[in-house]
Design brief:
The protein is α/β, with parallel strands linked by helices. It contains 12 helices and 15 strands. Helix 3 crosses helix 4. It binds pyridoxal-5'-phosphate. Pyridoxal-5'-phosphate binds next to helix 3 and helix 4.
Length: 366
């Protein structure tokens, strides 16, 4: 069986360190805040090459809190790619702003800067760059557009820990970056967890206050915030796993290269385009196939798990039935029925990718 994700296997490889890390938190009874959290925050800031890191409850809260910290005028328009997880757009609405969907590039599946430029109105205040599947969005062009129109850039890095654009880690190329440590992400906790990174000390301070009841000290609250803190237990787990992350990203790249080499030129399937000059973290390896559902079934019959990210483009979700772009024709709204995520992860080897490709080829030629 070729699994899509194998967290129990990963745990077995790092069990002694993880068990020690968890035991030390439980023995000290230090579940909220404390040194495990601040240690992870500084380790992750260093890893992402950011001045500041604020741990929060999950990746969705991270986006919401980051938007709130940007202090945009109420009901501002924020441009979000039409292909992402719903958290990206949901956080915009929940923080009191308007979602404007921009289309994606058909070969990288990432937000299309030309379309972003076309969507700008006087109400636009920010662009959300989602480094989807682990590949950095075109940050040079997005930053140029943002600069020209005085917009903020938020990077949703939930799938892109360690990814780089032009030698620079994602997260601080724009104004603020958000991460998810959902268990299945490349760097995953043992429950929900997230973080915000920025080079701006004021933004970092505002995020920390928003995430912790607007407090400056224990019972002195400057404004109403919320409770979205990174658990000490999760921070301790993440500190152990962070040390393995680069090795795991490299293993993902080995699998991705094997897929891309083998699938190049095979008719009936389009491999994802990796742009030059990026470090792709390959959270997902997403191909396009017309007979997607039949191939998925065929792979499953041969004990190969796969996924679909995402089966319904954001504007077409019921949640956006009343959105003015709900019926707009876009690359994203046509491509969603063809996307297929092949298994990838540190639990797989090159040989597994070749095996998956053999099965795909036999399906496509039958
Ligand atoms: C996972 C994910 C999120 C949300 O993170 P959670 O920790 O599950 O709240 C946001 N954006 C993208 C692109 C994601 O993949």
């Amino acid at each position: 069986m070729i699994a899509f994700l194998d967290l129990p296997r990963q745990y077995q490889q790092i069990k002694p360190e993880i068990d020690d890390a968890i035991a030390s938190i439980v023995q000290r009874g230090a579940f909220i805040g404390g040194s495990a959290v601040s240690q992870f925050e500084s380790q992750f800031a260093k890893y992402q090459d950011a001045e500041h890191c604020v741990g929060v409850g999950n990746g969705t809260d991270a986006i919401e809190i980051a938007i709130e910290a940007l202090s945009l005028p109420p009901n501002s328009e924020i441009i979000v790619p039409a292909n992402s997880f719903v958290a990206s757009s949901e956080a915009v609405t929940r923080s009191g702003h308007e979602v404007v969907f921009a289309d994606i590039d058909h070969s990288t599946y990432l937000i299309d800067p030309d379309d972003v430029a076309r969507r700008i109105t006087p109400a636009t205040a920010a662009i959300m760059a989602v480094h989807l599947y682990g590949q950095p969005a075109e940050m040079d062009r997005l930053c140029e557009i943002a600069e020209k129109h005085g917009l903020k850039i938020l990077e949703d890095c939930a799938q892109a820990h360690g990814a780089e654009f032009d030698g620079q880690r994602v997260g601080t190329i724009g104004d603020i970056g958000t991460f998810s440590f959902y268990p299945g992400k490349n760097l995953g906790a043992y429950g929900d967890a997230g973080a915000i990174v920025t080079d701006d000390p004021d933004l970092a301070r505002r995020c920390r206050m928003i995430a912790n009841h607007g407090r400056v000290e224990k019972y002195n609250h400057e404004f109403e915030g919320r409770n979205s803190r990174l658990d000490a237990l999760q921070a301790a787990v993440l500190s152990v796993k962070l040390k393995k992350l680069d090795e795991w990203i490299e293993l993902r790249n080995v699998v991705a290269r094997a897929y891309s080499r083998t699938l190049a030129g095979v008719s009936g399937i389009v491999a994802p385009h990796e742009r030059t000059g990026v470090r792709h973290s390959y959270h997902l390896y997403v191909v396009q196939v017309e007979k997607r559902d039949a191939l998925r079934q065929f792979l499953s019959d041969h004990e190969i798990q796969s996924g679909v990210h995402y089966p319904i483009a954001l504007p077409k979700l019921s949640a956006y039935a009343n959105h003015k772009q709900s019926e707009e024709d876009m690359v994203a709204t046509r491509l969603d029925r063809a996307l297929l995520s092949l298994p990838i992860g540190e639990h797989l080897r090159e040989e597994d990718a070749y095996f998956v490709c053999e099965k795909i080829k036999s399906f496509l030629s039958s």
